[in-house]
Amino acid sequence: MTPSRSFEEYGKRRPGGGAKLRSRRGRIAQNWWSQRFVDAIERGGDRGRLQRGRTYARAGQVVELHPRPGAVGARVQGSRPRPYLVEVTVRRWTPAEVDAVVATVVENPLLLAPLFSGDVPPGLVDLLAGIGVDLLPADAEVTYDCSCPDDGEPCKHAAAVVYALAEQLDATPATALTLRGVELPDLLRRITDAASGPSDPVEDLAVHLTSFHRLAGDLPDLGLRDRLPGRTVADDLDDVVLGPGAAGTADALRPWYVALGRGAASRPRPGRGRGQSRA
């Protein structure tokens, strides 16, 4: 859309100076989310005003369009020199609804990749609908305010804004979240924090590490029995360790373990040569 200009500058312009819609005929909304949005609005609007609103939007008479959390502000060029001021307001999600959105994405991590790319996956809309949270507003959740003398809701100028907004939803699906009062970067930050869980402060982590490496007392009694004379490691090998078909393996290995044990006992310990005494 065109940059903001003063009313005086608009008074010098001919109607139709805004960005024209890509759609020249038929349906304006191309994608599923924008189609649902337009369908919800059209169900509660006057057919004649909606038709004139489509004509205005296609002619480029929406000269400004500024979505923000919970609303979209616009200027629509009518037959008068100065454009009309239009405000379309959408019911914001409650804090509980936002918490439900965060929890839904955390429980369904496959939704994260589309969200990080700026897309709104259909799966998210369906999952939210299943718990009573609607992403796309119904007609009863939308209100209109226009500076024109027409009391209809929506008037043709507000209807033009709705259709221009539908094309913006096609290009930037995350605008649907903005209309619900949630900016996508803030939502992703909350989802990331919720998925990672609370973390200990650095000071607490240092205390935990110090306590872990400090002996608080004697080592616990592990209940190990003294090895019986003549018993070797081979006697500890059971059928679970050896596996099927290994009967007699322990008996075959026992002499070797006995020999290894005797050899270790006869070797001098480090620092004690054969001629050294124990003094």
From TrEMBL:
One Pfam family linked to the record: SWIM
Key words of the record: Metal-binding, Zinc, Zinc-finger
Stored InterPro entries: Znf_SWIM
Domain named SWIM-type: residues: 131-166
Keyword Lipid biosynthesis: no
Top-level lineage group: Bacteria
Residue ranges the record marks as coiled coil: none
Compositionally biased region (Basic and acidic residues): 1-12
Disordered, as annotated region: 1-23
Name listed for the protein in its UniProt record: SWIM zinc finger family protein
Annotated source species: Kineococcus mangrovi
